[in-house]
Amino acid sequence: MKTDTISRELSCDRGVAERPRYYARQLITSDDLTLEQEYFRNKLRAHNRLLHGWGVVCGAHVCPRPAAGDWGYRPWEVVIEPGYIMGPYGDEIIIDCERVVDLRTNGVTGCTGEPSMESVDPWCSQVYVPRDLTEPLYVAVKYKESQTRPVRVQPIGCSCEDNPCEYSRLRDGYEIGILDYCPEGDVTEPDQTDIPLYLQSIGLIRGADGLFERCPPCPPEPWVVLARVTLEDDGAITEIDNCECRRIVISFGPYALRCHTEKPTVDHLEPAQYTQGDEDKPLKIVGDKFKPGMKVHLGPGVTVDYKDAVLDTSATPHTYTVKVSLDADARVGEHRVTLKNPDCATTTVAGKFRVDASVTAVPTAEPRRATTAPSVTPRGGRAAGRKKKNR
To answer: Among positive and negative, which fits the CA dihedral 39, 44, 45, 50?
Structure first.
């Protein structure tokens, strides 16, 4: 993969405030697609710079490079650990592998996602830059955008001046440089003796006049300092300070809030037995961790009325008094009791609530009246009588 390491120098003022509007039968060119990309990228850069700030988010520590065979550390060279940095202009800088930097050179360049190898000219070694070692040096990094993946392009006409190849990708990268000054100077921390003033100074609350501070100005340089390094004349590193001139971005990535909700518990119910058909009967639930608005479910056929519910959490155990009504055909036997707080912390228990069958008078059956059996005329009797009479 061939890469063009010449980067574009970007600043805060991109000047892109429009995006393409697509419509049917539109002829779309590369300018339209590039404009759309730049619009959203510039929005993201402004968001990063104004809402999150700029500086080192995590990692990117500068360390001395160990010598081979456990012989201490090599002169002139430092190792930069992987890290994530927010650039002064809102660009995201990702160092995804360790990089070795020789402090005698201008630094190194790299592309995110590629091996941390520096291409060396076979005819010339690295160019050393004269350094004034009476003053400390600063290892810094800035965002760099590189063109990569060249492809052949169909010529427009028969002109010999057409470029036969074009780069088809833009890859995020970085450039690590060696500076002899701190671009932003020491970071002044706010006074922490007064908490409201401290929160006001870091922009978490409004100022005395009820307004937030004005938008911060655009930084003058794209560098983010990682460390200050002090060397001897022979290149021996005497000091590496990863805090001097380094800006730290407030990040909540490693942290989260833990939920502290507690589920309700049931000790007992007063009374614990009801009868089918009971209406508007008071029920006191005794337990703990009850919250206002807690719901109670007592099984099928049992309705809970919260209109005049009374919750008492002033002492332990807590009490919750409601009214219940039972259907005439509510299921007889033990019912599960379910308590649900407004935060959906739920508890279900068994053996605390029972429904008994209703006791009603069973009507006695009336005695069955005796009936006279109808007379049965013998078969052929009437005819027989007629015969006798004729005789």
So the answer is: positive
